[in-house]
Amino acid sequence: MDVRKPQNIHIKQSNKVVERNKLLHANPAIVVDRLKASHWRFENVIIPKIEQSFVGLMKIFPENPSLAVLFKVFIKFELAIKFHISIEEDIIFKEYLSQQSRANDSDSISHEDEEPFLCEIIYLLKKEQCADNPFCRILIQQLEKFELELEEHAWIEENIIYKKIREQRK
Ligand SMILES: [Fe+2]
User: Fold this and answer.
1) How far apart are CA 101 and CA 110, in angstroms?
2) Which of 106, 110, 118 is nearest to 84 (CA)?
3) Is 70 helix (H, G, I), strand (E, B) or coil?
């Protein structure tokens, strides 16, 4: 029996709490730098790797049309997240850092709107016949890891950035 596993989960959870608390009390510029760094990682590391895995899997299973459909859904998600990132970096983060309300700017938006896309793709991939294939398992793991990272990212934005902006706009 692997007794390390529950302990690892516990350590991860407490690290998450410590990290969140640190950010709640951090300088606004540090929070924004951290969020921009994860945007960069999403766009330049995580998403391209997932795309590669999808393309590879479609080559292995060319007779499976639903993989191509799921890949298209992922591309839609990718476009939505890139649009979202540009709004956050061009408008939202600047408003947060300036500590001045710009009431006419776009309403608060959150990455939470994008998470269901990933959740749905993972759910449907797991139902595919190829789900036991090692390359498909890797793709599912990449998507699940991304989902967790995005969830944490959205928590920071919601509880630090958007919360502050809503207060500024009151
Ligand atoms: Fe973001």
Assistant:
1) 18
2) 110
3) helix
What are 78's two structure tokens?
Answer: 């990718």
How far is ligand 1, taken at its centre, from the CA of residue 5, in Å?
Answer: 30
Lookup result for tokens 């139902």: 127
Dist. CA 85 → ligand 1 center (Å): 6
Span from the CA of 126 to the centroid of ligand 1 (angstroms): 27
Mean per-residue pLDDT, 31-40: 96
Residue 38 has pLDDT above 50, yes or no: yes
Distance of CA 161 to the CA centre of its chain: 16
Over residues 31-53, the mean pLDDT reads 97
Contact 125, 70 (CB under 8 A): yes
Please, are residues 138 and 57 in contact by the beta-carbon 8 Å criterion? Answer: no
Structure tokens at 142: 């990449």
List all residues 6 or more positions away from 132 whose beta carbon is below 8 Å from its beta carbon. Answer: none
pTM, entire model: 0.85
Residue type, 56: G
Q: How far is the CA of 141 from the centre of ligand 1 (A)?
A: 21
Q: Are 111 and 154 spatial neighbours (Cβ–Cβ below 8 Å)?
A: yes
In 3D space, the residue among 92, 77, 19 whose CA is nearest the CA of residue 43 turns out to be 77
